[in-house]
Design brief:
Layout lengths: L10 E3 L2 E3 L6 E5 L7 H13 L4 E5 L3 H13 L4 E5 L3 H10 L3 E4 L7 H14 L3 E6 L5 H6 L5 H17 L5 E6 L3 H14 L5 E2 L9 H15 L5 E3 L6 H14 L9 E4 L10 H12 L7 E5 L5 H4 L5 E6 L2 E6 L2 E7 L3 H15 L1 H6 L3 H19 L6 H13 L2
Parallel strand pairs: 3-4, 3-10, 4-5, 5-6, 6-7, 7-8, 9-10, 11-12, 12-13
Antiparallel strand pairs: 1-2, 13-14, 14-15
Helix pairs in contact: 1-2, 2-3, 3-4, 4-6, 6-7, 7-8, 10-12
Bound molecules: iron/sulfur cluster.
The site of iron/sulfur cluster has 13 residues, from α11.
């Protein structure tokens, strides 16, 4: 299933296209001092490995700009310089060869400074993000609108666009981030109605995990599902690699980027579970973490319901009678000791990834595996019945209690 995306202009941040139907790109930001070239590059490599397409580094002092001059040629992904307050840092970052700039219109307000940067970026063919931030809005707009509103943030972006247009600069993308999710959603909706520049989505200062993850996902995914957004960043108080992973996971979950890693699904467990589902699922998660295997893999707590409920998965395992029952596309293929469930999943996933599901099914006796699964399923049903939580008996008891018998 796919949904319509809003048509936007396309710009390029280095080699990465943004907008105009390009795949939605994932961004993050380094938290090292940019002057620390080796430390910053290490973080950039880790971010790129985690699926990040574009990395932003702060350029807040001359040493940072000098660091960028060394970082840019060695980076595997395009680098954007983040600029607040000093427009001269933007000029220095352009000189360093960055692939993009982010300017905060709330912090650089003099029109001649804004236009000087735009002209230099225009001559070098480097895009600029107009990065409006609810926390640092131009005080004049704050006063005009009686506080922080979606309208005030949109007007801030439009003012900046007007300055850029005065000097014929249109390699623009825009963000209107706020830490308040409904406000941020409304600001992006309003902005997308009045401009077709590509939009960079984010909930600013979303906070530590897991709350930050939930807030950012709520805001970003609401907009993406409306077709709004061309590039995203999770602003988490965490290792930036978590931001890249979250971005990747969100886009893959929404079908907006091709799956690169395992999509691990697992049942929530219940009274019927034959294993510690949480522990096994977490172990499987770690085992697949660095493997680039784009399959959906299921960990299910019992063989009674597991294989049926996860029949759409490429591969899965369900527990029963101290054994793990492996199934491929819903067909039982093998039985392994419970202690080897995760290892078996990795082996089978690797085989399926290399040779396909049909080849995996063809190499085993599925009838034997099915008989074994049926045996364990029946044993469990006999032991716990169809009703693992004994609800029928409980309902009889409840009725007795209520009627006073
Ligand atoms: S019935 Fe089985 S598969 Fe479903 S939640 Fe319970 S343990 Fe998991």
């Amino acid at each position: 299933m796919s949904f319509e995306r809003r048509q936007t202009k396309q710009i390029h941040v280095g080699k990465v296209p943004v907008g105009g139907g390009a795949p939605i790109s994932i961004q993050s930001m380094t938290i090292t001092k940019t002057a620390d070239v080796e430390g910053t590059l290490q973080q950039i490599y880790a971010l790129a490995a985690a699926g990040c397409d574009i990395v932003r580094c702060t350029c807040n002092e001359i040493e940072a700009a000098e660091g960028l001059a060394q970082i840019v040629p060695r980076s595997p992904v395009p680098i954007i310089a983040d600029i607040h307050h000093q427009y001269k840092m933007a000029l220095a970052a352009l000189e360093a060869g960055v692939h993009g700039l982010r300017l905060n219109p709330g912090n650089i307000r003099k029109p001649e400074h804004i236009k000087a940067v735009a002209m230099e970026a225009r001559d070098r063919n480097v895009p600029i993000r107009i990065g409006v931030n609810g926390g640092s809005l131009d005080p004049a707009l704050y006063e005009k609108y009686g506080g922080l509103t979606a309208e005030a943030m949109v007007e801030s972006a439009l003012q900046e666009i007007a300055y850029f247009q005065e000097v014929d600069f249109d390699l623009i993308k825009i963000s209107v981030k706020a830490s308040n999710v409904p406000l941020m959603v409304e600001a992006y909706r309003q902005l997308s109605a009045v401009t077709d520049y590509p939009l960079h989505l984010g909930v600013t200062e979303a906070g530590p995990l897991p709350n930050g993850l939930i807030k950012a996902t709520a805001g970003i995914s609401t907009l993406l599902l409306e077709g709004i957004g061309d590039t995203i960043r999770y602003s988490l108080t965490a290792d930036p690699v978590e931001e890249a992973r979250a971005g990747r996971q969100l886009l893959e979950s929404l079908g907006l980027r091709e799956r690169k890693n395992v999509d691990l699904i697992a049942c929530p467990s219940c009274g019927r579970a034959e294993i510690d589902v949480i522990e096994v699922a977490n172990r499987a998660m770690r085992a697949f973490e660095d493997k680039k295997i784009p399959l959906q893999i299921a960990v299910m707590g019992c063989v009674v319901n597991g294989p049926g409920e996860a029949r759409e998965a490429d591969l899965g395992i369900a527990a029963g009678n101290k054994r793990g029952h492996l199934f491929v596309k819903g067909r039982n293929v093998a039985v392994v000791p419970e202690s080897e469930m995760v290892e078996a999943l990795v082996d089978w996933a690797t085989f399926i990834h290399e040779h396909g599901a049909e080849a995996a099914i063809a190499r085993v006796d599925t009838a034997l595996a099915e008989r074994e699964a049926t045996k364990d399923r029946n044993a469990l049903l006999e032991e716990k019945g169809d009703d693992a939580n004994h609800s029928t008996e409980k309902i009889v008891e409840i009725r007795k209690t209520i009627s006073g018998n």
